[in-house]
Amino acid sequence: MSDAMSRRNVLKAAALAPAILGAQDKSGNKLPIVGSGDHTYEVHHDWGELPKGLAYGNTHGVVEDSQGRIYVHHTVHATSESSDSMVVFDDKGKFIKSWGKDFKGGAHGLHIRKEGSTEFLYLCDTKRAVVVKATLNGEEVFNLGYPEQSEAYKPKADGTKLRYSPTNLAIAPNGDFYVGDGYGSSYINQYNSKGEYVRTFGGKGKEPGKVDCPHGIAVDMRNPTPSLMVADRTNNRIQRFTLAGQHIDFIAGTNLPCHFNYFQNGDVVIPDLGARVTLLDKQNQVIAHLGDDSASKWRETRVLARDKFTPGKFVAPHGACFDHAGNIFVVEWVEVGRVTMLRKV
Which of 59, 241, 288, 294 has the most crowded CB, counting CB atoms within 10 A? Predict the structure, then answer.
């Protein structure tokens, strides 16, 4: 936790912060409702009580642990006294702790996995170009840098290297993990559970098996044979691969998919960067586009002040996850950061 943010300040901020809201927002207005039927949600924008001295940058990743705590990974705003990039809340939105100074400016992908009886976080840093495995308190277990072993990344004749900037990762049942080089050279690099290089696949292109900004990646366990679901964002599609890196098919229904999270009933939530959150069912058919404002000038809106955001509409969803109760947490690529809870009703 940042030295600049004393425990006294944290306690004071928590005492002064408003309680978690029910059916009204902070101004007393009725909360927006999105979706329909079994997929109806009450929209709680600006969820969670940030302590004094900590200001969000772009909010990029969000996960829930087995205790119901919510982890938000953000780049840290220029005005923030604290440099902590990871903020942890309880299930009511009360601040618990923060850490992660090293990820300031580069905080991006976030994945949680239980290994035995212990949960670990896997984090992608686009600025330092590393993947880090850490405990829930932020202690580093290992880090993985440039994929030197891959033939695809061998230096050119003049000695220059391909750009590498990992955006997200996924972990298979056997512990192999797959790193999407979304902001680098559009390859997907596979490693075993020890961090040893296995293979590289993908690469920039539009044809089947090629990707352009594999921004998000997840292992889909909803069918008897697990597969990889890749957010092929610049190609405006989702692409599926075998765990050995072979193309399977494409999935329609998204514009700028960023990442994936699955619920126990087979639903998948996809932060669709162009101002909406997409829900797919177990057959990968679109259920709904939540908070859809895709016709707006969202790229202009994302740099504006918070009061310029339209209630009930998303601006630039970048990360999303279900909690254990089926509520959805959405974090957005906006300069002031935003965490929205979609409470299932």
Answer: 59
Per residue in 236-253, pLDDT (tens digit) is 999 999 999 999 999 999
> By the 8 A CB rule, do 293 and 330 touch?
no
The predicted-structure confidence for 41-79, as pLDDT tens digits, reads as follows: 999 999 999 999 999 999 999 999 999 999 999 999 999
CA dist 343 → 35, 45, 92, 325 (Å): 11, 11, 12, 9
Length of the chain as a residue count: 345
Both tokens of 259, joined, read 């990442």
pTM score above 0.85: yes
Pair type for strands 59-64 and 339-344? unpaired
Token pair for 294:
């895709």
Q: Which of 320, 239, 277, 238 is nearest to 72 (CA)?
A: 320
Distance between CA 17 and CA 306 in Å, rounded? 18
CA-closest candidate to residue 214, choices 263, 259, 252, 172: 259
pLDDT (average), residues 88-97: 97
Homologous superfamily assigned to 7-344: TolB, C-terminal domain (2.120.10.30)
Domain boundaries, the chain: 7-344
Q: Which residues are paired to 33 by β-bridges?
A: 42
What pLDDT is attached to residue 19? 30
